[in-house]
Write a structure and sequence with these properties.
A 7-stranded mixed β-sheet has the order 1-7-6-5-2-3-4, sandwiched between helices. It is an alpha/beta fold and 421 residues long. Helices cover 46% and strands 10% of the residues. Helix 1 packs antiparallel against helix 2. It is built from 16 helices and 7 strands. Strand 2, helix 10 and strand 3 form a beta-alpha-beta unit.
């Protein structure tokens, strides 16, 4: 089994000058909209969807009242991350919410919801996920898609010893598209065979034209040469997106491209739908009892991967900290350096990759994320006003044809980079 990583980056941050952070004080920006409209609505939904006692409802209503001009304060609960948060908050305590960087404010906001709902405190509401209803509903409404996807994955798994390398590569690329688009993925993205219909080819082309950087061929070339290596996922959302990630992990393990897959998950609920270890197990329990045999088969195989120690769920307080990825603790960086491929999912993780900074959109993606200690893939649908690695003519066309292209979730990137020695 192949384990060592031959190209560990010696960089500890971007190798080019770092621009200022995105701020919520910029009127008309998506960051400003998030603070003034989206955050209060998120808290109100938490109130509406949970049967919290009056004391917790009061805490949440107080948080709403703080936005956007209230004063930032230290945390006041029993969470294991409180000491580190005290250090993170030191430069911002006493400032107004609207005066602090967007990424920091958002992570702090979700941590304040955890505090307000007594997630870490003893009592009847200990460790209640305030977003549990939304997560369970998201999984429930995606069951038709999960059944179809399960059948495709199982068919490949059942016959894969007889498949040639071209078909393996095709299935891998399809699963990468599913991992990118989540609920927006269509089963036509996974051709049944080399003779797929003209309608299927048109659908694939339509989806591909909305991928502004598509390095899937490079990734497939790399994975085709793997034999029992370690692959890591920095996971984003629960629900159908998590199922898509698990299907990709199953493919990598069943093909023996990966000998072991690590899922890096959040240590507590955050960003509404972000996946925790409990979400992984809860999802598999739901799938394992589904009426559809294909879904049950997929779930049982994934549970077997976990039982055999081939699919490992890990959490680290860094993933819920208000830090960018080049501020990763050395212990975690050393751990990830053992990976032969790191796949980072979602918009929030992408923002942390780029430091949530005002990079020109044509800035080299590799020049920014050169600090990653292993080969790295970013799969991201655009939901915030930052990007890198684009062509100037792309940006000009998008600004003209879709003024909301940065935030409407209709565009994506699949970007692959090698670490720089």
């Amino acid at each position: 089994m192949e384990q060592e990583n031959l190209t560990v980056s010696q960089f500890r941050q971007p190798r080019i000058p770092i621009p200022p952070p995105l701020m919520m004080s910029e009127a008309g920006s998506f960051a400003h909209l998030t603070l003034t409209k989206r955050m209060p609505a998120i808290v109100q939904r938490v109130i509406d969807e949970n049967d919290f006692p009056p004391s917790i409802v009061e805490n949440l209503e107080t948080l709403i009242q703080e936005l956007p001009h209230g004063i930032v304060r230290v945390l006041n609960d029993e969470g294991p991350d409180v000491p580190t948060w005290s250090r993170y908050l030191k430069p911002f305590v006493g400032k107004r919410w609207i005066e602090i960087p967007w990424l920091f404010a958002e992570v702090y906001f979700y941590r304040r919801i955890v505090e307000a709902t007594h997630y870490f405190l003893p009592g009847s509401f200990q460790s209640v996920d305030p977003y549990e209803y939304q997560k369970s509903r998201g999984l429930e409404t995606a069951m038709d898609s999960i059944q179809e996807l399960s059948a495709r994955v199982n068919a490949w798994s059942d016959t894969q010893p007889h498949r040639d390398s071209t078909l393996d590569r095709t299935s891998l690329i399809a699963l990468l598209y599913f991992a990118l688009w989540g609920n927006r993925a269509d089963l036509s993205l996974w051709p049944i065979n080399a003779e797929e219909s003209e309608e299927s080819r048109q659908e694939i082309h339509l989806k591909q034209t909305h991928i502004l950087v598509d390095d899937t061929s490079l990734i497939a070339d790399r994975v085709a040469n793997f034999d029992g290596v370690r692959i890591d996922f920095i996971v984003d959302n629960a629900g159908f997106e998590l199922v898509c990630d698990l299907c990709l992990a199953d493919f990598l393990l069943a093909s023996n491209a990966a000998g072991i897959v690590y899922l890096h998950l959040k240590s507590h609920p955050t960003f509404v739908s972000d996946a925790t270890i409990r979400d992984v197990h809860d999802t598999l329990e739901v799938l394992a009892t589904d009426e559809d045999g294909e879904v049950r088969s997929l779930a049982h195989r994934l549970q077997d991967h976990i039982a055999q120690g081939r699919l490992l769920c890990r959490e680290d307080l860094f993933w819920t900290a208000p830090l960018v990825f080049w501020e990763m603790p050395e212990e975690l960086r050393t751990e990830l350096a053992q990976s032969r491929l790191i796949l980072s999912k979602g918009d929030a993780n992408y923002r942390r990759c780029l430091g949530d900074r005002k990079w020109p959109f044509t800035t080299s993606f590799q020049d920014i994320v050169c600090y990653f200690p292993a080969p790295f893939v970013a799969l991201r649908t655009l939901k915030s006003e930052l990007a890198a690695g684009l062509q100037s003519d792309q940006v000009e066309t998008l600004n003209h044809e879709d003024p909301q292209w940065l935030t409407n979730g209709q565009w994506g990137v699949i970007q692959f980079v090698e670490p720089m020695i």
